[in-house]
Amino acid sequence: MENNAYEAVMTALQEAHLDFEAMMRPVSFLGVDGEYHETKMFTPVRSDNGTIISDHTFTKSYCPIQNRDAFKVIADIASVTDIEFKNVGCWGNGAGVYAQIALGDDMVVGGGNDRVGRYLSVVNSHDGTRGCTILITPFRFFCQNQIAAALSHADKDNLFRVRHNSLAEGRLRILGESLKIAEGVFVKTAEVYNRLADKIIDMDFVREGISRNLPFKGEEDTPEEPTTHFENMLTGMINRFNSADHGNVERMTAWNLYNAIQGTFQHDSRNTANKNFSVLCGGIAGKSQTALNNIIEMVDRGYEKTSTTLFDRAFARVA
Description:
The chain is α+β, with helices and mostly antiparallel strands. Helices cover 43% and strands 19% of the residues. The chain contains 10 helices and 11 strands. A hairpin with a 4-residue loop joins strand 3 and strand 4. The longest helix is centred in the middle third of the chain and has 31 residues, at 168-198.
């Protein structure tokens, strides 16, 4: 399993043209004398095509972890537990690269066919944003959504980081302990998802849930009128809620509401070079986690109306 997992991810890196090395090159500037002068700062450059990976600059002490070395951690994980390699992707010009693996059986939500993959994502970056990091990234197959986990002991931004200067034996011990934490997170996450699937809600709950995650935003000149972006996002959330994944989940449930909100953030947000990063561990991931937390709080503690008159009016027009 270990060698097969490493070979699979290396093959995927090659096929995606992400098996390059990040080489540190000195930054130069054009002087008043018309000549280029090197500075003491460096920037990462791709070895395969010579293009700059990121506009970040670093001192000579910065040493990027190469993708092939970062993803050796997948082989390490395979030596600790059974995994299935899924895919590899990137954001920017290879500024960040990620590979996804599945741990064991999927989670089943709501007693039906709604399955959520127990995914971990191994993330490596060359722009200084993070080292080699393992993220808990549940994946919902119906709508191809990277959704939030009900994190407990693990840090909300990542599960753990792999320090490549550690001894291999010590690193495997850390992986084993961290995977136990991940298993606990997945168990709790499945319980939370199913609690949301069992919670029957009404349209007041829907309106309040959406308003907490999509506050009303008006036009600058006519603040009582919703912006086009706000109206589009609101329409997307309500349409997804009403569709209930084309009838594959129970419509009037908190689980359907959460997925309608989160799915709109993920699929209807503007496509950019960094959208993969945003979905995995950036702004969209943060909105996904906040939405889950908000819906859980409303289910567990009840709620008082916080939506505004302007939001209610916009909601009524679309719903």
